[in-house]
Structures are given as structure tokens and as C-alpha cells.
């Protein structure tokens, strides 16, 4: 999303470059009345940008006031500043410390020209999206590991019952569910819903309900 007010202040050539660059990278450009100059929604993450296409020290107060306002509204905010000359770069650095900016909060990205600046914007937005997706993948991987560990513990408990093997344990898991559900199941319910023998069903019921029997098995 590009701010309409930001767009109206820019040279048409820059807007054309941005539109072409976004299309080449499979982004859809929308013009909206938004507070930041750009907002990218990438991989489930919203990243906001302030894009100063030509640093002017006379506007420093307005720029940093806007930065302070937007950093409270957006978790991921970046400020890209075009400083084509050494003098402008020095002026920007002085203003940065003058207004007491905290390093990385938000991150400022000085660049030499507007085209480079916008390329940086797209790269940052893409990187944020990739990081978000990797977090999701990591979470899913961790959940799978936990599920395997839980199933392993489930099998260890049930196969500790004399005469109950992994096939029986899997049958109980699929037909009845959790350890808690199996512990509450009657012999008749187990026989109706699994292929276990009467003897095995009785052992399972005794294991969970007879204290003398419950305390005797050893976990493998």
C-alpha cells in the first residue's frame, strides 16, 4: 500500500519505477490514505515505512515527530532516508542524535537515491515475511516433535501392561483416544471398539483401577 499523500509529492518517474519494480516482484500496488508512506503485508506480517526521498534539514522536526508517532502504532517500522550528498548525510546524522533516537527503534536506512531506497524497502519487507514464515514452520516442527514425544510416552505407558503390545496400544489410541479416556473405559467398551481379546481388555481395566495391579508394572 502506498500513501496517496506521499505519492502526490513525488516525481512521476519515481512512481513509475516503483510500480514497475513491484510488478516485476509480484506485488500488487494499492493507493490508500494511510499514515506511513508504505505498508507491506508479507507472509502475515505488516511492515510500515517512512520514505524520505530527499533529506532536508529544515523539515527535520516534522520528520522525527512523525517517526515518534508511527513507531507507537506499528511494531515493524523502518525509515528510509535519501542522502545523496556528504553534507546531507552529515546533517541527517546530527539530527538523528539531536532528536534522541534509540538505535534500532525504529531502524533508519540511509541510501544514495530514491530507486535504491525503494529496492531496500522491498527487500526489508520480503525478509520480514520470510522470518515470519520460518517462525511458523519452526512452530509446526516443534509441535510435531511434541506430538511424537507424547505418542511415545503413550505407547510406553500402555505397553508396560503385561501382554499389551504396540499394536494394541495403537488400536486403543485410534478407537478411544487419550490415556485418560482409556482409563475410564469399561471392558465392554474396549471389546466393542477394538480387536483386543477379553483377557487384554480385563488387564487394561485392572491396570487403571486396581491399585495393587497399577503399582506393579515397570515402564520399559
TrEMBL record:
Transmembrane segments: none
GO BP annotations, alphabetical order: resolution of meiotic recombination intermediates
Coiled coil: none
Family annotation (InterPro entries): PTD (IPR039172), RuvA_2-like (IPR010994)
Domain of life according to the entry: Eukaryota
PANTHER family listed in its UniProt record: PROTEIN PARTING DANCERS (PTHR37394)
Protein name, per record: DisA/LigA helix-hairpin-helix motif domain-containing protein
